[in-house]
Structures are given as C-alpha cells and as structure tokens.
Amino acid sequence: MKTDEMWKVSTGKGVKVAVIDTGVNPDTPSLKGQVLAEEVPEALAYKATEDYTGHGTTMAELIAGTGSGGGLRGLAPGAKIVPYRIAMKGLKGAEAEKAPGVADVIRAVAESDVKIMSMSFGNHRENEDELEAIKYAHSKGKLIISGTGNDAEKKNLIGYPAAYPYVVGVAASDESGKVAEFSEHGNYVDLAAPGLDMPSWCDATFRAYCDQGGGTSSATALTAASAALVWSAHPDWTANQVLASLIDTAGRDWARDDPSVYLGYGLIRPRKVLMDEDFKPGPPETDPLAGENAIGLLDESGNPVTASASPSAKPPKEPEASDGGDRTSTAASETDTSDNTTLWVALGAAAAVLVIGGGAFAVIRSRRGA
After folding, report:
1. Which whole-number Å values give the CA distances from 173 to 96, 180, 186, 320, 356, in the listed order?
2. Where are the domains of the chain?
3. Quick one: what percent of the chain has pLDDT higher than 90?
4. What top-level class would CATH report for the domain 3-363?
5. Who's near 177: CB < 8 A, 6+ residues apart?
6. d(CA 65, CA 279)
7. How far is CA 189 from the centre of its chain?
8. Mean pLDDT for the stretch of residues 164-193
9. Span 316-342, mean pLDDT?
C-alpha cells in the first residue's frame, strides 16, 4: 500500500472509528492518547476500556496504533478510537449481562459524530433489533464494516452482521492476495483485506504480541482504517462516496459488476484514491451496494435464502470474534499483476515486521449469482 506515500496525504486525522469488540485497553504504548472513552454514553460504557481477551485492543491498534513503545503502528495512526465492549465468547455470567447489547451500541454510534463502525465479530443468526439498528445507522450516514467470519472450512454458514444490508462484508486474504481457506464466502462479501499471520496481543495480560493472529477480524480493521484515510482526506464526502471509492479502486482482475463470492469487489487499495487528486467518488446519495441489497442473500447455488434457511431466532449472548488465528489460504485460479500493494505493519517506529499484500492478486473467480 506504500504507506509512507499515503501518510503524506492522510493519516486518518479527524476521523473517529467505533471499535465494537471485547473492549479496548487505552494504556498500551501504541494507543495512549488514541482512545476516546469519554465519548461512550454512560449507559453503554461498562468496562469499555477493559479488554477481556486482547482482541478489541488489537483491532484498535491495527486501525489507529501509533507504534510508540514497540507497539503496533496501524494503517490510520491519525484516527481516534471510540471503544465499546460487548459480550462475546470469553465473557460469562454477570459480566456478560452487564455488557450493552449490539443493537443499542449501533444506535448510540449512529447518534454520535463517529463516522465508521468496525465490527470484528459475528454469529450465524439474524436479529431483528440489530437489523433495524443498522438501517438507522445507515440513514445517519455511518459506514458499517464487519468481518464475514472464519468458519468456511467447517460450515460456511451466513455470518451476521456482515450479511445484513448496508454492512460492508470483509473477507480475509493472505500476503499474495489469495482468499483464506477459513474466510466465509457468499454474495454478501464486498471487499477483502490481509488477514493471515498478523501480530496480535496474545491475551488480556498485554505482556506480548503473538505473530499468528489475523482472520476476517484483522481484515475488517484494515478496511475500517482504509476508509478513515480516505474520509480524512475528503471530509466532505459521504459514507457512500468513501465506500464507492474503495470499491472502484479495489484490486481485481474481473469486472466491477461481477463481484466474487470470495473476495467481493477486490482487495482494498486506498492509495489509489489518495494519490489521485482528480478522483471522482460518484453521487453522494448513491449506495454502491444498492444492487446487492435489492437482490438479498443467495445460497451457493444462487437461490434466494429464505427465512427457514436462515434462522431468525434471538442470537446467543456470546457472538464470536472473527479471529482466524493461525490459518492457511486456498489456491487461486487467476492473478492480477497491475499493482504492487505492500502494507507495512510495524512493531515500533523503526522496525517493519510484516509485509502483506506485496505480490500479485490471486483470486477465486466465482460469481455471486452462481
């Protein structure tokens, strides 16, 4: 992604990202001064700055970490994080009961000046309250981003909230652009980003990073950070225009109107927007996902997903973080060598420890409707 060049244009300054996750620890070296905990409504702020697994803090650092003190330097180090702690796997009993509901959090973010929601969690059941909250947030001009999930090797069930309308579903790729084997797929996949062998906090003690993190969680965080970079450079754009710019510039070797069920419209390349002073994002009121939302969910045979095929019961209290851990990637059938898109994630200001997306894009060419 040539971040050094991008950061001359934008670092994400002025953009707030809500990280709805396991909480965010604001005291890691990389996040000091980056977390706006005071902006969380009191009714929803229960232990928002106490991360019970390390997952939410990792996502926040991938988005807006400064790299200070040997910490992760995120893709949008000028952005700020507004933390929300929800009950996911690993939170039990009274602690889970005190955590705010997902729908309540989404509505609160919709009423704030936060521009982007990053949701690296999911389950396989619809929830009407969450859907209505998402529709409301969309009407308020928010950009909502979620990982598609990491169970493709087992079940590949439909993952929510990524599969809801108005949510940008993000798949995970490896360093060469191949879709990860674990990355759930379907016609609700919109974009893709690196998601294998990523540094992450090992656990809630915050003593060390491990190097086998990732999953669609990390891909979601990097996509949210990309949106923050673009929105910071173009503060007058709407969420529709920011998303349209990421879709139009995504790395792919297929037609824009024929998205893949594995990688959607392609791999994120915000540099293509930031380095083009004459980039045209399209009409502010035009939803780039309008066609997908009108069609609705399709199964792997291209048939509409009915209510009976997609349970609508109340979701479990403990949705799982979309964290893929140590994963592998699938073989791919075609490549696109049109651009070198290197992303550097640095441990500390000087040492680059991970290079992802440096090779050609290799993708599964499976159409959404087939």
Report:
1. 32, 5, 15, 20, 9
2. 3-363
3. 71
4. alpha beta
5. 251, 267, 332, 335, 336, 357, 359, 360, 361, 362, 363
6. 28
7. 12
8. 95
9. 39
- Binned at pLDDT 50, 70 and 90, residue 34 comes out as very high
The letter for the amino acid at 168 is V
Say if residues 143 and 115 touch (Cβ distance below 8 Å): yes
- The residues with which 143 forms a beta bridge, in sequence order, are 116
Residue 97, both tokens: 């009961």
Q: Is 125 exposed, middle or buried (0-12, 13-18, 19+ CB in 10 A)?
A: middle
Whether cis (ω within 30° of 0) applies to the bond prior to 161 is: yes
> Lowest-confidence range among 266-275, 283-292, 347-356?
347-356
**Per-residue pLDDT at 327 exceeds 50:** no
How many Cβ atoms sit within 10 Å of the Cβ of residue 69? 11
CB–CB of 135/144 below 8 Å? no
Distance between CA atoms of residues 250 and 191, nearest Å: 8
Of residues 228, 29, 18, the one with CA closest to residue 108: 18
> In which residue are the tokens 């439909």 written?
158
Give the pTM. Answer: 0.86
Amino acid of residue 70:
G
Residue 335: pLDDT band with limits 50, 70, 90? very low
Instruction: Using alpha carbons, select from 202, 228, 197 the residue that is nearest to residue 215.
Output: 197
Q: Given this model, what pLDDT does residue 343 score?
A: 31
CA distance 152 to 162: 14
Question: How far is it, in rounded angstroms, from Cα 240 to Cα 262?
Answer: 22
> Strands, DSSP E only, in the chain?
16-21, 72-73, 80-85, 116-119, 121-122, 143-147, 167-173, 189-194, 198-201, 209-213, 320-321, 334-336, 343-347, 351-356, 361-363
